[in-house]
Structure formats: structure tokens, C-alpha cells
Amino acid sequence: MLFLHDTFPDGFLWGAGSAAYQSEGAWRQDGKGASVWDGWAAPGGDVASDSYNNQFRDAEGLRRLGLRHYRFSLAWARLLPNGTGAPSAAGLEHYARLLRRLRARGVEPVVTLYHWDLPRALQRALGGWASPALPDLFRAYAELCFRHFGAHVRYWLTMDNPYVVAWHGYATGRLPPGVRGGAAMGYRAARHLLQAHAKVWHLYNDHFRPTQGGEVSIALSSHWIKPQYMSEQNIKECQKSLDFVLGWFAKPIFIDGDYPESMKSNLSSLLPEFSEAEKKYIKGTADFFALSFGATLSFQLLDSHMKFQQVESLSLRQLLFWINSEYNHPKIFIVENSWFVSGSTKRDDAKYMYYLKKFIMETLKAIRYDGIDVFGYTVWSLMDGFEWHRGYSIRRGLYYVDFESHDKKFMPKSSALFYQKLIEKNAPPPLEAHSKFWPPLL
Questions:
Q1: What's the helix, strand, coil split of the chain in %, to 5?
Q2: Which fold has domain 13-432?
Q3: Where does this protein have coiled-coil stretches (predicted)?
Q4: How far is CA 24 from the centre of its chain?
């Protein structure tokens, strides 16, 4: 049993996150270039939460909740409008100013270089991540960011959820850039994403880590799955399901530079091979395990055939245990977690708060019962915004955003007040522990 006085480790990094396209808006302001998401679905993220023009509002929102870190992404096309070439002075100043504001408020920046919003110019000219030219262009973009912002950043994430980028961007075409290239193109894009990540990790490790002292990883998303029947075959199918989504990227990076055996044996010539030199180059290119676990990424965008006829589950604790066992006991940073509520929900978000408490309690159990080294937790997201393929039909923010108001009015929800108390105590608030919205302690 967890006792009410059980706390999270000292120095635990509580925070919240956002992605540039979901929150910034200002899609053509100050010379920003277009991304593959611009124009995909009207009105899209043209305005979103208007964070580009409301930096002070967002930073104060972080301070009021006592958040210790803020995960946000840089918009590649805001910094390099064409994806390469001369950088935008306005873009550089925008993010430099945000980093200064975060530091002034004692908030640790956790910066994602690429959260799905590829510059449209690179897609049109080269074919995007299907092109072998992209890894070197991504490295050049990362070098710009390390040089300009690295003195203020301790945690970098190269990219978010490459499974979604490769599979739904280039195989199924469900998401931008909408290429319906089938499995072969999806696996080709994934190969380039892995190469790009490795190039950036080595760039930082060789040239920036000695002076900046930061850490670099990649945000990997996963579901959890249980066997439909407790048979050896069903259990193997569950392993295969996790291999085909999380292991696709995690095994090359954390184990041996190569794909899971279940993928290699089932996909045959569809899966592009890595040379021995490439395997060695990719292996070990993460300083911690950055995990995303939530409704949109882990479940709604998981193709049904990736379940291999088994049953999905919301057990974050079991997933953490599996990652710990499968990937050599890495330190884990939960860089995205939450559920969602209807887009019509105002500030009383009881359903969202229920799931948030459930996931936080499972994280505490994983730390205290299972001895898993989880050192940070990120609620997704700081504010309501554009929710990708769901648009504005759902909300996932700690802060309610009134999208109809001119200044995008910004107000804390009941979940934000809960989270504020939890951070203050570094533990579940005792008075809430047996409420009807609190998951059982056992």
C-alpha cells in the first residue's frame, strides 16, 4: 500500500508541455515559413492559443502553478523559413526571449527541436523525411539551435514520436504531409528519422556537451497492451505489438542499433537494413528515456493491426516496468501524459483530473514499489490548443483558453489547482486521497 506521506524523490521535475504548432499561432508573422501542417485542416493552428504573442501570459501561468519545467518545441520554419539557409532574426529573438523568461521564473526549459511541423519547402523540394538528405539538414538546424540557445537548455529532445511522423506522415497519409506511400515508405522515413536523431546526438556530444553540459534524448510514444488470453502465443503477440511501435525506435537507440527481431522476421525486405557502422553510430544515442503516454498519441493513432488482436490498457505503471526491464534500466523522463475532455468543457474538468491523478499515482507506485528511476513528469498540456487530427473538438490543457476571445483569455482549471497542490507537497494531497475522483491506493 502507498501511504499518504509517500512523496516523490527530492528534486523531481514537475512540469507541463506544449508544441509549437498546437499553441503558437502567428503562422505567417515576422517572416515565418509554412510547415506541412499549415493549411492541412482549416482553421488549424493559424492562431491556436496565440502563444507567440502571449509569452508573458504563458510564463506567468507556469510560475503561478509552481511548475519546475516547461517542455516546448521550436518551430523549424520560424527559425529557418525554408528549412535551411539564413535564419530569421525575429525567430531567434522570440525563443531567446522565452528562454530568458523561463529562467527568470526558475522554470527549467525542456526543448524539442522537431514536433511534427516540417518546413513545407523541404517536403516540396526533397520529399521530406523520405529523402536521405533530411538527416544532414536536420543536423544543421540543430547546430543553429545549440549555438543560439544551448547555454540556457539542460534537456533537449531531438524529435517527438517518430512513429507517428513515419507511419502516418509517409505510410498511411493520415497526417501531414499526407503521403500514402505504404509500409515501405514509412519504414524508409523511419530510417532517416533515426539517422537524423543520431547525428544530432553525436553533434551535441562531440561539440556542445563539454561547455553546455546538457542531455539529449528523443520523445518516444507507446501504448500498453495485455494478452487477450493468457497463452504463450498471445503474450508473444503483445511483445510484437510493443516492438512494432515503441521498439521500432527504442531498440536501435537503447540496445544495439538494430530493429527488434519480431520486426525483422515479419517484415522481410520491407525493413531497410542498417550496416554495422550505422548500428554502432545509432546505439546509445540517448542520455535518458523520454516517454510519451496519452490518448492521442498512444491510442487514437495506433493502427488496429498493430495490436495483433490483443487488448489495449491504460496501465502506465506496467509500461514503465516493461521499459525498465527491456531497455537496461534507463532513467526515465515522462515528457507527455494526460487524457482529454470534450471541447465544450470549461474550467471544471473532473474527467481530465481523474486520469491525471491515476497516472501520477501509477508513477509514484513505479518509483516506490518497483524501484524505477523516473525523474520527471510532464502534464500535456499547459493550455488548450489545436489537437492535431482532433482539431478543437477536445481539450487537454491545465489552463482553459477561450478561443473566441480576442486576447485568448487564459484561466486555470480544477486540474491546474490540483496539480499546483501536488507540486507544492511533492506528493498527492492527503485531503484528496480518498475523494471520488482519486484512484484507489492499492
A1: 50, 15, 35
A2: TIM Barrel (3.20.20)
A3: none
A4: 16
